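Saturday, quiet lab. Running sequence design on the structure tokens for the scaffold JK sent over.
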């Protein structure tokens, strides 16, 4: 079976982390992670985010203000114009030749 793409890995990442994938799919995820450091970096970030969210109490959540609707709409519009085509971690790195 061919190696998963980064996008396919992202599609199943939550199920992978939560242990909800069948053994064969879990193994395919492991194979991809063994050769893709960007996805490993994203996985670690995702796991840290989940841990931070789980540590919040309901009272803490009540204190978080609502996100302004104009910001929500701007983010959604930007995603429609430029959908994610690269691993998320790769978007945070400078392109080759752009390093300072």
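Result came back. Writing it out in full:
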């Amino acid at each position: 079976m061919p190696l998963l793409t980064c996008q396919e890995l992202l599609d199943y990442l939550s199920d992978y982390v939560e242990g909800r994938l069948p053994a064969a799919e879990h193994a395919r995820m492991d194979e991809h992670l063994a050769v893709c450091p960007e996805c490993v970096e994203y996985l670690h970030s995702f796991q840290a985010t989940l841990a931070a969210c789980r540590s919040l109490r309901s009272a803490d959540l009540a204190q978080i203000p609502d996100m302004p609707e104009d910001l929500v709409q701007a983010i959604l519009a930007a995603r429609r114009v430029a959908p994610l085509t690269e691993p998320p971690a790769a978007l945070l790195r400078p392109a080759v030749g752009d390093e300072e």
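Notes for JK: The chain has a mean pLDDT of 83. The CA atoms of residues 22 and 81 lie 35 Å apart. Ask whether to fix the surface positions before the next round.
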